[in-house]
Amino acid sequence: xxxxxNPLFLKGNCHSIPMDELDKAFDIxxxxxxxxxxxxxxWDGDPLTLIHPDxxxxxxVKSFTLLIPRIYEWACQNNTFIRFVYTKKEKSITHLFxxxxxxxxxxxxxxxxxxxxxxxxxxxxxxxxxxxxxxxSANIALSASNDLKWNALGINMIKxxxxxxxxxxxxxxxxxxxxxxxxxxxxxxDEIIWDIPILETRILEFERxxxx
Length: 212
Description:
- The protein has 212 residues and is α/β, with parallel strands linked by helices.
- It has a single domain (7-204), classed as Rossmann fold.
- The chain contains four helices and ten strands; from the N terminus they run βαββαβββββαβαβ.
- Strand 5 (103-104) and strand 6 (110-112) form a beta hairpin.
- Helix 1 crosses helix 2.
- The radius of gyration is 16 Å and the shape is globular.
């Protein structure tokens, strides 16, 4: 483990990403880890999509979060340290821990936690507090105020990194939707530019798959 932090922020579509685009994104991520010394992978708290118990296809809904276990497994196989950081509101901060039951949302998406995140290897940190030695844990669950609007979670997390002396990083967008589009506009706003790390950004655009 290292207390140095070089983050990659992941954003993207929560369904209908073609499998070849997920593979392309994975290759880009591994390239960044190997060539740019990325050691921290971050996302806005989206759960892992899982195979629905009644599925005809035997496939989960194709969200960008399917990449996260693949990154973890690659890191384990290649003896590479990767810290995982996600953010959620305080009331649901533990929902990505591996002891959380799976569920199905109103769209029929079956989802659940990440098997490699647990109470024992993930430190819960409040995003509105200045905390010393924040990067001394394997993983971080960044707890935001319950009053924070859901579409401000991602910006809040990126600002948190700058407050804790992370001055640069990377952003990979795997599919553009309205929410991510609006967030990208806010990240380029002059009013916010001094509050966030300098981000080298790459956007993957594609036609969504006909099967979610």
